[in-house]
Amino acid sequence: MTGIAGCTGGSNQEGTLGTSSDSDSDQDTDSSSESSSGNLRGGHLRIAITPETTTINPVMMQSKFPQRWGVKLFYSTLTRVDSNLEPYGDLAEDWSSNDASDEWTFTLREATFHDGSPVTAADVKATFDTVYDEEVGSPGMGTMGDIQQVEAVDKRTVKFTLGTQNSDFHKLVSKGWGSIVPEDIVTDAKKRQALGTEEHGSGAFTLESFAPGDQLVGVAYDDYYRTGDDGESLPYIDRISQITIPEKSNQVNALRSGDIDIIWQPGYGQWGLLQSLDSVTAHRTPGGEIANFVMNVSVEPWSDPRVRQAVKHAIDREAILNAVQDGLGTIGQDSLLSPAYEYYSDIGAPERDLEKAKELLAEAGYPDGINLTEEFDLTLQTASNIPHMRGTAVLMQEQLKEAGIEFELETMSYGNWSATVWKKSPFYVGAYGMRISGANFMKLMLHSEGNWNGESDWSNEEFDEVIDKAIAETDVDQKQQYMQTAQKLVRDEGPYAISFYIDTIGASKNYVEKYNLNPLAYQIYPDEYALGSDAPTK
Predict the structure, then answer these.
(1) Which has the closest alpha carbon to 445: 432, 436, 428?
(2) Are 278 and 23 in contact (CB under 8 A)?
(3) Which of 28, 188, 287, 422 meets the CB 3.0–4.6 Å disulfide criterion with 504?
(4) What is the b/e burial string over 232-264, where b = at least 16 CB atoms within 10 angstroms of the residue's CB?
């Protein structure tokens, strides 16, 4: 097995960049440094979140960050992904692929579930077979690659056979749906349903209590198998609580008063205040969340690439970034990939040029501009309660009008939007979080056979070919070339206008040690966090 091989370390290899009130730079404080006292063991870590955690079922959880958050406490995956999107081992101590990257073999550590039984390759096989069983209906089915067969070679060796080549498969199995559940639990429908409020994992914490929508509490598992980069057994902390605080301002108040230790995802409007607090470190790193202006090419006038290009030249990206995100992000290039992705290319965004936009409209047959609602019955739809979706839609409406492109705007709750608009309407502003693999994300959304291609119905033979090559390619330099070509094709001909990529931000008390802010907000590993000796819960 000679393709891609991996050998693990014990913990995350990189610190995170952040700021405190003592620094003038937005990204110059290494918050992973150890406490001067050297006493990192013990204490109760309290983390505030906004959305409600309603289940801890790793098989049936939806694509919602707080659900993944809870699962990460109690369960182990084969690998993890660090802040540079590099994989390192969790349950797997080693892995390799064949040259074609369509066969992957993982070697397991010696680990036990919380009931004391050993974790075996049979449990891994049963977990993935269940998640990929159509009759089970797991939302994770298909999200970790085209898995055709899982084989338990022996007790500690598991082999995956894929239907297509995928050089990022070892990253994809770090998703929450790849959380390993005991075979006797995951294959029993009744026991599997009970996973919503009980856990049977091998992770760093065992479940103490769970009040859905309110609070989740875990305690350290004494026989956890991982060690930190200092050789110490993990987790460092004794106890962890995830506390739901819906209002972002209340989270800041709780952090300031010492009632919580970390805000998982602070409100962007709170950034300035967080930077000003002496007892708090504000963390910021490039992220990959987007708000995408969708132009479905199966309907007029979006079927004409000149109209799509006119839109891209009519928008003021910097103004939208500043107004919607307080400048906490990067200018968008109309590609799905932000600077946080491993194979991002700085290809440049289309410049705002109203005259060029008008010329493109004239060439497409609209010399006097176009009213999308009156002429094509197209109304821009978005969610009113997702700030970056609504803000983008409002500003796009204002800016496009200057180029002669007019339309009505309709807002609704995110729940209603996701049920009635997403992948159904030809014209809306959507939102996507960052994905583990940029190549697989681009295929999912834009390949003519991608599972979510129905959002735009865009089809480009050259893009299909180059993104398939990128996913299969194991040579880093060659893969970068394929990915650059794919990004340029999407920018120049694709169905999206993407004004910005959102930074990931976080906040913690200064006594929190080894805190690692991952651009993938849902990749949270609190077993690697520690509390200094001055923490109030020690």
Answers:
(1) 432
(2) no
(3) 287
(4) eebbbbbbbbbbbbeebeebbebbbeeebbbbb
In the Cβ-directed half-sphere of 416, how many Cα atoms lie within 13 Å? 9
Q: What letter represents residue 1's amino acid?
A: M
Residues in the chain: 538
Rounded distance between C-alpha atoms, residue 212 and residue 53, angstroms? 6
Block residue for tokens 């397991």:
108
The CA-CA-CA angle for residues 18, 22, 23, to 5°, reads: 50
Cα diameter, the chain: 73
| Residue 289, φ and ψ in degrees, nearest 5 | -75, 140
Tokens of 357: 């936009």
Instruction: Please tell me the distance from the alpha carbon of residue 524 to that of residue 509, in angstroms, as a whole number.
Output: 17
Q: Is the pLDDT assigned to residue 21 strictly greater than 90?
A: no
Please write down the long-range contacts of 225-228, taking CB distance under 8 Å and 24 or more positions apart: 225/109, 225/110, 225/111, 225/112, 226/10, 226/11, 226/90, 226/527, 227/10, 227/11, 228/10, 228/11, 228/514, 228/528
**Tens digits of residue pLDDT in 52-76:** 788 999 999 987 666 777 899 999 9
337 is written with which tokens?
A: 């990939």
Backbone φ and ψ for 270, nearest 5 degrees, come out as -95, 0
Q: Which residues pair with 96 in a beta bridge?
A: 5, 105
Burial class (CB in 10 A: 0-12, 13-18, 19+), 351: exposed
List, for residues 463-516, the tens digit of each pLDDT value. 999 999 999 999 999 999 999 999 999 999 999 999 999 999 999 999 999 998
CB atoms closer than 10 angstroms to residue 188: 13
CB–CB of 459/448 below 8 Å? Answer: yes
- Judge whether residue 17 has pLDDT over 70: no
Average pLDDT over residues 375-385: 97
